[in-house]
């Protein structure tokens, strides 16, 4: 029987579109055999693998977003830039830390949030073993020490999701075994290849990365460094997405990564994206595995 896997990408608030994707797939009776996510994709995917219900995931996430502790996070300050969508969220965090936080605090600490607060925000995540979830699941995090992307297929769900979503500069790195971990999106924006490692033989990728826009000419070293990193990240995402059998791109690319106050609108866009592509998704589920292998081979030849 075909095993359809979901690759859920990171993108901050844009990743809430994954909830809408799951809601519509569930309504349409599309069975998911495996999920791999990074950053917000890991949080949404991990909760779905635990609950097996998109509605429960939605309720859980909205409760987190409305909690007093989450409301304390400095997302509104990060959204004050006149052209926020021109930068990815790592760049905005660096700007925020460099210009708006107390310089002494930034130099003396590895994150804006204290570790206790970061842990408290994730306490509502079920502390279940990944290997015991209802759906096969893995989450990507980035090891700061080696630069490796780590695909967690075992361990406590709560801590692994905290690591995968540890936005550099805002959340403190998370220590698991020998790793010193931050947000999975630092190394893997849409984890297409990794979901095949946990049993999927065809992959539906959900891409919520930001657009790469044309910008004004950089005026200093920092602008050039930011832009170079942004270009690298964008093209890496495109390269990884080539491994997918089908890509769904909810219309959320114009949203800012910190637009958590627009959660319901973003979720609805995820639902709509799947409705528009449901026939292609059904065809993917029914397509012969050998044909898929040939199609992937042709993709590689063309790349």
Structure description:
This protein has 303 residues and is of the alpha/beta class. Helices cover 46% and strands 13% of the residues. It has helices at residues 17-27, 40-51, 54-65, 68-71, 75-78, 89-99, 103-108, 115-121, 157-164, 192-197, 221-241, 263-286, 289-302; strands at 4-8, 34-38, 136-143, 149-152, 174-176, 179-183, 202-206, 246-248. Strands 1, 2, 3, 4, 5, 6, 7 and 8 form an 8-stranded mixed β-sheet that branches. A hairpin with a 5-residue loop joins strand 3 and strand 4. Helix 1 (17-27) packs across helix 12 (263-286). Residues 99-104 have low confidence and may be disordered.
List the helices and strands and how they pair.
Blueprint (H helix, E strand, L loop, with lengths): L3 E5 L8 H11 L6 E5 L1 H12 L2 H12 L2 H4 L3 H4 L10 H11 L3 H6 L6 H7 L14 E8 L5 E4 L4 H8 L9 E3 L2 E5 L8 H6 L4 E5 L14 H21 L4 E3 L14 H24 L2 H14 L1
Parallel strand pairs: 1-2, 1-7, 2-3, 7-8
Antiparallel strand pairs: 3-4, 3-6, 5-6
Helix pairs in contact: 1-3, 1-12, 2-3, 2-9
């Amino acid at each position: 029987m075909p095993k359809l896997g979901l690759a859920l990408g990171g993108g901050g608030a844009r990743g809430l579109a994954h909830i809408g994707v799951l809601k519509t797939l569930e309504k349409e009776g599309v069975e998911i055999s495996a999920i791999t996510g990074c950053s917000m994709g890991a949080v949404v995917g991990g909760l779905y693998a635990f609950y097996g219900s998109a509605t429960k995931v939605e309720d859980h996430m909205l409760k987190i977003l409305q909690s007093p502790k989450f409301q304390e996070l400095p997302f509104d300050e990060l959204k004050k830039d006149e052209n926020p969508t021109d930068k990815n969220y790592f760049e905005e965090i660096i700007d925020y830390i460099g210009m708006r936080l107390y310089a002494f605090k930034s130099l003396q600490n590895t994150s804006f949030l204290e570790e206790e607060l970061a842990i408290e925000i994730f306490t509502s995540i079920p502390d279940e073993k990944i290997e015991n979830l209802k759906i096969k699941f893995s989450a990507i995090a980035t090891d700061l020490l080696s630069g490796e992307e780590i695909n967690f297929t075992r361990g406590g769900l709560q801590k692994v999701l905290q690591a995968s979503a540890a936005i550099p500069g805002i959340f403190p790195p998370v220590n698991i075994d020998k790793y010193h971990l931050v947000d999975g999106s630092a190394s893997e924006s849409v984890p297409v290849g990794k979901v095949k490692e946990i049993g999927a033989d065809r992959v539906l990728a959900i891409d919520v990365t930001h657009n790469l826009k044309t910008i004004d000419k950089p005026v200093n070293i920092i602008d050039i460094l930011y832009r170079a990193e942004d270009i690298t990240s964008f093209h890496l995402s495109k390269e990884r997405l080539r491994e997918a059998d089908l890509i769904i791109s909810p219309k959320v690319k114009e949203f800012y990564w910190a637009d958590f106050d627009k959660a319901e609108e973003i979720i609805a866009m995820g639902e709509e994206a799947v409705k528009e592509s449901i026939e292609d998704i059904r065809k993917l589920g029914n397509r012969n595995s050998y044909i898929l292998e040939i199609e992937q081979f042709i993709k590689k030849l063309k790349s």
